[in-house]
Amino acid sequence: MKNSHQLVKDIGEQGLLKKLQPFCPNEVIGDDGAVLTTHPDKDLVVTTDVLVDGVHFSDRTTTAFDVGWRAAAANLSDLAAMGAEPLAITVGLSLPGDVLVSWVEELYRGLTACLQQYDTPIVGGDICRSSVITVSITAFGQVLPDRVIRRSNARVGDAIVITGCHGFSRAGLELLLYPELGCQLSDRERKLLIKAHQQPQPRLDVLPYLWELNLSRPIAGMDSSDGLADAIAQICRCSGVGAEIERGYLTGVPLLSKLVPAEQMWSWILYGGEDFELVLCLASDTAKSLLTKLNGDAVIIGKIIPEPKIILQDKFNVYPSQILSLSKGFQHF
Amino acid sequence: MKNSHQLVKDIGEQGLLKKLQPFCPNEVIGDDGAVLTTHPDKDLVVTTDVLVDGVHFSDRTTTAFDVGWRAAAANLSDLAAMGAEPLAITVGLSLPGDVLVSWVEELYRGLTACLQQYDTPIVGGDICRSSVITVSITAFGQVLPDRVIRRSNARVGDAIVITGCHGFSRAGLELLLYPELGCQLSDRERKLLIKAHQQPQPRLDVLPYLWELNLSRPIAGMDSSDGLADAIAQICRCSGVGAEIERGYLTGVPLLSKLVPAEQMWSWILYGGEDFELVLCLASDTAKSLLTKLNGDAVIIGKIIPEPKIILQDKFNVYPSQILSLSKGFQHF
């Protein structure tokens, strides 16, 4: 009974998740969403996210509209990461009685503004009293069974493709917290970074391009909501492989380097999180076709290797090679 | 802009729900769950419930196991109220870091103990840090489109059927709070009432009997989670009708009257809530067939009338007739 007094903070989020895995069926663990077979042709994908005031958002940097937008975007991003088209979401909201009604309406305006881009309705939910604002969203989507994107599908030799830019959301947060920063940025650049933080776009737009490819096998992937390094590490862990990443191919460097010194910039790009981009692993020639279709909005940053480690290289030899741990993840406790 | 400083507690749960309705499609509002057409033969039913520590449960009366059991039961009950067979649930959990890991494990044991009775898995969720324990559950089920049970389906002349007993959960709570009460109860009776509160059973067992009936039209109904009077009032409001209820047919009176005076007993039966029984409205002859099938576990308590009010009668003339308001509902704020 040595562990009977163990607290949640002693073992952290990952430790707790491990303890709770035996309560879930094996086949649904380890992806951005769960896949349920409910239909002869299409699988149902389900994903849940909880946002807590003071942990995931704060009045200082996030309006109620943006809390709603980001909550919707995070869940739609999980669906995109599974290859699923969104059907609907539900919203479980608990909040103190002294919250402004207008705050709640703005939250819903933000939710629907993001959702409407993808014709996705809010189909229900629950509201109740609490001492802290908590927004719990469950999103459902559908996907053809052979199109399900899983973390465990990566194969040695696969090209690693990332969409968009990483570190931008983290940079936007910094600009909101410290408006005096970034005097070298143009107005347009400043707005771009802040928007990446306040109103990120789930990458559902990438899916139709994926289905146009001549795919001979399932794609591996997830979204980069908990950071790019975390996404690569999770894919490698679930697929039993490693990755070789080339720093020089990572996007966003010219802009971010105007804002902070190199070390901080790399930390934002690799660990910043909340960029809600896609990290995909697929055969090299298919990856190149995808890049052509996405027209500059995605790059190949490296390849899958057999050794279970992540090697971060620099072809220009400015930075030494680095080995990233496969177990480093984002911890909420 | 008179209302720009209006607080959530000023308008209450129902007032807030009304403000948020414009953000949801019309067709999904007003039932225990939302119905999504995702399949040629079966509709998907989705329902969400949020439980907050100190509001919906407390250490004084509820173990972690029972919090889990009740949360699962409440959601499965919503599915039963829609006529849907459960597929799966997701769990969004936020909690302080100083919660015991064993508490969380007991919560999941309670969840799965209730769910396993219906072969329903936990297929995912989210865990994060918060200052208050919040359990947000979303449940999914499937139902044949012509079997969907809706609050709006009641017709004048329908018999009103209730399963099980009402007021038992409220009585069980009282026995937990004040163990010195109920000295006239047998041990068996005491345990029965406490179990009704701690480990209620969703009435999914009723559905197969319903589908055996020769139904010529959809059934009206909902569950009595927010109280029997609330369920009747909601069905009447959604169907544009009223109800005539006979006190003498309400079950559980002999047991509850041993515990508290009549006025309090009627309040528990009508407004106690959390009994998770079904309130169904269907043609009188079909209702009688259902009673036969359920073998004493359901009664007809009255009928649907055209006038939009709920008349509570007493054929023994012990109590005067009473008119219940159609607008009285359960308020969480």
- Low-confidence segments of chain A, given as residue ranges, are none
For this structure, the quaternary state is homodimer
Count interface residues per chain for the largest interface.
A-B, 75 and 75 residues
Q: CATH superfamily name of the largest domain in chain A?
A: PurM-like C-terminal domain
CATH architecture of the largest domain in chain A: Alpha-Beta Complex
Global outline of chain A: globular
Secondary-structure element order of chain A, N to C? HEEHEHEEEHHHEHEHHEHEEE
Radius of gyration of chain A, rounded?
A: 20 Å
The percent range for strand residues of chain A is 15-25%
Q: What level of helicity do the residues of chain A show?
A: 25-40%
CATH class of the largest domain in chain A: Alpha Beta
Mean pLDDT level of chain A? 91
- Major beta sheet, strand line-up of chain A: 7-9-6-10-8-11-12
Described by strand count, sense and barrel closure, the largest sheet of chain A is: 7 strands, mixed
Domain count of chain A = 2
Total helices of chain A: the number is: 10
Q: Per CATH, what is the topology of the largest domain in chain A?
A: Phosphoribosyl-aminoimidazole Synthetase, Chain A, domain 2
Structural class of chain A: alpha+beta
* Ends distance of chain A: 24 Å
